[in-house]
Inverse folding.
């Protein structure tokens, strides 16, 4: 399949450059577009056409460039999706391309069928259509193949095959997962908090398995996490993953032209800081926030990419309980889940959970009614958790304590009565002793005192 004939691929790249250019000041766009197009006149022409259309005043007088950008992008998206993708029906190795499943900065993912007569199987096949335009994308695809080859986990989509076409286009063949993005799955079934946390824990297990193989995913957005009809979780797309033992970052991660989702990117990804497992802890925190509150942690901070990036790097998100769209969910979020999500989303990596396992452990402790590490370990907090976790035992202990108090109070009352009787007996004894002492001749001084007296 000829890469240079893939017009939808060129249009997609023009769309990405155009979208990034809209975030810049008009005076900065020319130099940016020059560098992004890399001397490709056809690509530059497409971008210039989009920018010119955006700048021209519309006949109905609707808005300026910033206001019209979403409509322009939506129209381009519709145009691209309506165009029949080049390559449908063609063969890549033993596979026949059926339809496009998705497009992104790392290439195109096709639904494909094995078509060599050996056996029938549907797979997801990823290729880089414009591989000649970039040395980085084929390298990243080879790196993704190497990463997936070393990952075996039930919640990670498996690598099945890979190779290079006759034209030199690299491709990967992966397990085809039929499912919904995790956020759409939760909303479509109106799942409760416990069920949503169970899905997040399955994602945590997959990410922790990748970390044990020294792989950081770096793109933990809902679109990369599918849930099957049976409720199984599958983590996809290690296209921008990083091997921690690489001698460098493994390639640029600048937004706009490079594969990175700003709303689910940790602050260090946006500022060029070191990438560690804490980066995925932040991504899981953003995913947890999205599933609990129904929105991304910084979505309300602004509508443009630059505004979201600025908020991620400079502002703390609101607690999920205050941002939740569903009041019935919000009541369950205040307290532990607010604290867990906000700790995972700390701007400084050292202030987040030390590992994905630590985050998962706090979620499991919350589900079991145990105190969580994200909250201060006060005596009152621990007592409340114990009361909620074991109400019967706490009630029995309270009854036993009450009985002990009653017994002690009874004993104290009896002691007070005994003391009162003792004092009364001593007073009577003293009185009679005084009366009888008066019959003593020494006391009477010679007089006779009868007993009656």
């Amino acid at each position: 399949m000829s890469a240079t004939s893939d017009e939808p691929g060129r249009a997609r790249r023009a769309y990405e450059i155009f979208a990034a250019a809209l975030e810049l000041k008009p005076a900065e766009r020319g130099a940016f577009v020059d560098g992004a197009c890399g001397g490709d006149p056809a690509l530059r022409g497409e971008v210039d056409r989009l920018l010119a259309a955006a700048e021209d005043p519309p006949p109905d007088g609707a808005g300026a460039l910033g206001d019209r950008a979403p409509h322009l992008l939506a129209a381009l998206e519709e145009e691209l999706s309506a165009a029949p993708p080049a390559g449908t029906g063609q063969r890549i190795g033993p596979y026949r391309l059926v339809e496009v499943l998705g497009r992104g900065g790392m290439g195109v993912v096709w639904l494909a069928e094995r078509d060599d007569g050996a056996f029938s199987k549907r797979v997801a096949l990823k290729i880089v259509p414009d591989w000649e335009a970039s040395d980085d994308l084929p390298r990243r695809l080879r790196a993704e193949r190497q990463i997936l080859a070393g990952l075996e986990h039930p919640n990670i989509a498996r690598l099945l095959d890979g190779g290079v076409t006759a034209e030199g286009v690299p491709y990967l063949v992966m397990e085809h997962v039929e499912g919904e993005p995790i956020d759409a799955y939760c909303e479509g079934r109106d799942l409760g908090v416990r069920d949503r946390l169970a899905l997040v824990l399955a994602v945590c297990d997959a990410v922790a398995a990748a970390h044990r193989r020294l792989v950081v995913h770096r793109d933990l957005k809902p679109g990369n996490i599918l849930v099957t009809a049976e409720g199984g979780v599958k983590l996809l797309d290690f296209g921008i993953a990083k091997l921690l033992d690489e001698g460098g970052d493994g390639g640029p991660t600048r937004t706009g032209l490079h594969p990175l989702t700003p709303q689910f990117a940790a602050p260090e990804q946006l500022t060029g800081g070191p990438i560690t497992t804490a980066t995925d802890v932040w991504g899981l925190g953003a995913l947890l926030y999205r599933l609990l509150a129904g929105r991304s942690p910084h979505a309300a901070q602004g509508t443009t990419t630059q505004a979201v990036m600025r908020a991620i790097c400079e502002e703390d998100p609101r607690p999920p309980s205050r941002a939740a769209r569903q009041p019935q969910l919000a009541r369950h979020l205040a307290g532990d889940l607010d604290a867990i999500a906000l700790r995972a989303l700390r701007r400084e990596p050292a202030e987040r959970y030390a590992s994905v396992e630590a985050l998962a452990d706090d979620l499991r402790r919350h589900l079991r009614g145990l105190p969580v590490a994200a909250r201060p370990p006060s005596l009152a907090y621990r007592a409340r958790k114990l009361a909620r976790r074991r109400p019967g035992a706490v009630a029995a202990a309270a009854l036993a304590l009450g009985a002990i108090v009653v017994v002690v109070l009874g004993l104290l009352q009896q002691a007070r009565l005994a003391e009162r009787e003792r004092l009364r007996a001593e007073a009577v004894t003293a009185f009679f002793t005084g009366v009888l002492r008066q019959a003593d001749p020494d006391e009477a001084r010679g007089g006779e005192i009868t007993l009656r007296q």
